[in-house]
Design a protein that fits this description.
- The chain is an alpha/beta fold.
- Helix content is 36%, strand content 17%.
- A seven-stranded mixed β-sheet has the order 1-2-3-4-5-6-7.
- Helix 1 packs parallel to helix 2.
- The two termini are 25 Å apart.
- The chain binds iron/sulfur cluster.
- Iron/sulfur cluster (SF4) binds next to loops.
């Protein structure tokens, strides 16, 4: 069975789905089967809520105060298990919850899911990926033509609702594109993290 919880650089992560509505050019899934201490992050079938809870019950959270939803897929594609397992981790283990996401959940689900996320998520990192719609579509290769605009709207609303929001880009972008991404993030009042491509 694939790893549901795994650790990497002193963080614990939840890998709850392999579904994703993007095909990013830098996605680690295309060249490795696992990261960090995980053996394999490819599920035969996405884990059920009960399987995620069991993985949590078998994990020693003593050294951790935050659980990050980020695995080999987009966590919000498994919205119900994300919400219910995050609530379980908060209530039973006192974990803060961070979500790493592509920011397309409202498009994917065809409704505003932010009120539901806000009930269990403490902070969010959104993949900005590029500073313009053209480059975003080229880098992220999403299932939706209006994904860039929807992702920005999602980020703005999430910032109003949850507060703790940051953008990320991967350093596969040119210096000019990273600078333009910083400018866009600043204009939205959201911090930007530049991640190393690995
Ligand atoms: S959104 Fe994340 S999981 Fe999906 S293709 Fe992009 S990097 Fe990979």
């Amino acid at each position: 069975m694939a790893d549901i919880l795994y650790t990497y650089q002193n963080q614990v992560y939840a890998n709850i789905t392999n579904k994703c509505d993007c095909s990013c050019v830098f996605c680690i899934r295309s060249h490795k089967d696992a990261i960090g201490e995980a053996d394999n992050l490819w599920h035969k079938n996405d884990p059920s809520l009960e399987e995620i809870k069991k993985a949590m019950d078998e994990f020693d959270f003593t050294e951790y105060d935050e659980l990050v939803y980020c695995g080999y897929g987009e966590p919000t594609c498994a919205l119900q298990t994300l919400l219910e397992s995050a609530a379980y981790a908060k209530e039973k283990y006192g974990m803060k919850i961070r979500l790493n996401t592509n920011g397309l959940a409202n498009l994917y689900h065809g409704r505003d899911v932010i009120p539901e996320l806000a009930q269990v998520i403490d902070s969010v990192s959104i993949s900005l990926n590029a500073p313009t719609p053209e480059r975003y579509l080229a880098v992220t290769r999403p299932s939706f033509d209006d994904a860039f605009e929807a992702m920005l709207a999602f980020a703005a609303k999430l910032k109003e609702t949850i507060g703790q929001v940051q953008f990320s880009v991967v350093d596969v972008l040119s210096e000019e594109e990273v600078a333009a991404s910083k400018k866009l993030a600043e204009e939205m009042g959201i911090a930007l993290r530049v991640r190393k491509y690995s």
